[in-house]
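Researcher: Quick sanity check before group meeting.
Model: Go ahead. Protein one:
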Amino acid sequence: MAVRADGRLADSPMQPVRCGACGGQVEVRKSSWDQTSIQWHEAAVRACAERRDAPPGPGPNGRFFSGCKALRDSVREAAARGEIPIQAED
């Protein structure tokens, strides 16, 4: 069975977004208004107070982080301004 190449990042590369609260910069791709892929960089991890202050969680990863509200708001605002393309408009 042949594996089909995933061309999503070639068709729509990740875009930089800076958090309005901490200034940390991540790379973002929005598949829809409800689905966002985020690539965290080390500097953004260090800058994000919400991520740094996340309580330890269970399991082998220990520090489960469900997401930063301030970054989520910054991404949504960037998408609303048209700075981040949305692949499938809902």
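Researcher: Fine. The other one?
Model: Protein two, sequence then structure:
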Amino acid sequence: MAEQRGAPQNGTLVVDECSDRVGVVMGHEGPNVQLRPLRGGREWEADPRKLRLATADERQEAGAGRSRPAFVGDRYGGIARGCHE
């Protein structure tokens, strides 16, 4: 699975502006980027043009830097749909 030019690198913490979710870039498949919640949970696909780097506040809210997550799972429940051009 090769990373796309201009897409964020694997391991980058980003915000999917279509679903307003924070996720870690797990990989690149076709035109999309696979993201997973920082604390674990179900992966979802996102358009790389709709991603931005997470702010410090968003990183903290997502649990970045915590030694132990407060919970495990996808609080949004599954694959984000919509926000397609």
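Researcher: One line on it for the slide.
Model: Helices lie at 56-62.
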